[in-house]
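Morning - nicotinamide-adenine-dinucleotide inputs below, output right after.
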Amino acid sequence: MKAVHFGAGNIGRGFVGLILHKAGYEVVFADVNAELIDALASTPSYVVTEVGDGASVWTVDNYRALNSSTHEADVIAEIASADIVTTAVGPNILRFVAPLIAKAIAQRSADLEPLAVMACENAINATDLLKVEVVKALPDAALADGAIFANTAVDRIVPGQDRDAGLNVTVESFFEWAIESTPFGAVTPVIPDAHFVDDLAPYIERKLFTVNTGHATAAYHGFAAGVSSMSEAFSTPEIAAEVRAVLAETKALLVAKHDFDPEVQQAYIDKNMVRFANPELSDTVDRVGRQPLRKLGRNERFVGPAAELAERGLGSDALVRTMGIALEFDVAEDPQSVELQQLLSDSTADEFVTSVTGLDAAHPLYPAVVEVVRAHQK
Ligand SMILES: NC(=O)c1ccc[n+]([C@@H]2O[C@H](COP(=O)([O-])OP(=O)(O)OC[C@H]3O[C@@H](n4cnc5c(N)ncnc54)[C@H](O)[C@@H]3O)[C@@H](O)[C@H]2O)c1
Ligand SMILES: O=P(O)(O)OC[C@@H](O)[C@@H](O)[C@H](O)[C@H](O)CO
């Protein structure tokens, strides 16, 4: 069995690559980072060290690595004969990998089983976004039948790694990979560590609007308070209180929308508060807050749940307050943070809200977000 995985970064090596390796796949990593790909290509194995309850140490081998920028044709040929293609490149990058997947689907022998395509990104229905781009790049849309596109929800905190760690990755011991089963029919891909579910929406929304909403809340409040590590942010009582406040709001939505048992959702929140504060994971507010314009997007971790709460007449004060605090995120190395600061000073509050959050002026959440943006403009 062979899997081609785009994005040999933190989650690529420390989660998707590891799980596919454990499932018995030969993994071909494809990435545009030449230094990373050269290191992988010249190294027979790397080590994933888990920290936390039930931690293990895993050695990943039986992989190859290709530079998808300089060796595009090789990557396409690998995908054409693979069983699975996965991505962990970031939602905004999917459109750049899609043409390679499209060319591979067009080249694929009709004798082969359809290619399983799964985007492993923190976004609602990321595989659907990828599919749109793949179909756009196909010479004939009917060729899309040569692939099965399935959305997934991936959960494991993999912080940035020490430079001297090389290819080795330290990760939390917890992980969850939920994959929608419906597109596959009766025969799902062999991935024992993943679980296949009929309806992914409750899983991805619970994950994104609890884990990622809570995480980003701590990052933005932490940044504003001058804190740099995530464990310090979570051990600061005022910041932990802000996280609990946003998660109480997203809980109200998840319970109302997906009929979750409130006690079960509260237990999920409490478990995540412990995960977040894990002092063995050296994670930073800069990583967790990265790409703030993406995180303030319409279907993302703040505006997504806050908009639905407003539509239901439910409160979202803590989410809106955190959107305001997110506007203070100013990290010179993060291009989106630089753009955010520029937009804030160049735009009116209405222009900013319309372009960044995608909220319509008639939406019930719109006035509160405009007000918080205005309050944060210098
Ligand atoms: N790190 C986590 O804790 C975590 C957990 C769950 C999901 N995710 C999601 O996984 C994705 C990747 O996150 P990460 O933390 O691993 O980031 P990362 O920056 O460590 O890795 C991303 C990799 O993608 C590569 N890349 C960029 N453009 C590419 C292209 N055109 N073709 C091929 N490769 C390309 C980069 O060189 C990099 O190696 C994001 O969507 C993130 O939200 C991350
Ligand atoms: O990857 P992002 O930028 O969408 O979000 C940053 C973190 O919240 C995220 O990477 C988490 O560590 C991860 O989603 C945990 O499963």
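Note: The chain has two domains: 2-199, 202-376.

O.
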